Sequence to fold (155 residues):
Amino acid sequence: MPKPASTPAPTPSSPQRRLEGDRGGISVYTAIVTIALLAIVGLAIDGGGKLRATERADAVAMEAARAAGQAIDPASAIKGTGIRVDPEAAAVAAQAYLARAGSQGSTTLSTDRTQLTVTVRGTYTTKFLPIVGIGSMEVTGHGSARLLHGVTQPE
Fold:
């Protein structure tokens, strides 16, 4: 009976030997790249979400300041001694606007009673970052309005 032909042992430079050494290499590379790409996409989505939330907070703060700027002191305006913001009415108007917008914030009035500043605080709930323990991010918006009056130009 003839002996079966034996297959030669693979040499270090043979194609069969090179393929055996690379088993699973693509799988590890794919897993690492996939995790890295998901992390980048997650950061882009949550970073963009925080930017949008901050822009909204800024817009709400500006609108609340404008609403507060409409609360002038009627006594000084009627007497002609000057147009000034009524601080209590301005704070109430700003807080009312913030409540309608579903936001929380604070209002400050300058010492000369002509500039209102509104600060809005809120949070952005993250979509991807809870995986690493970041469930939300604080956002803050600022807005101010200066009370101007005049017929042909601001005085």
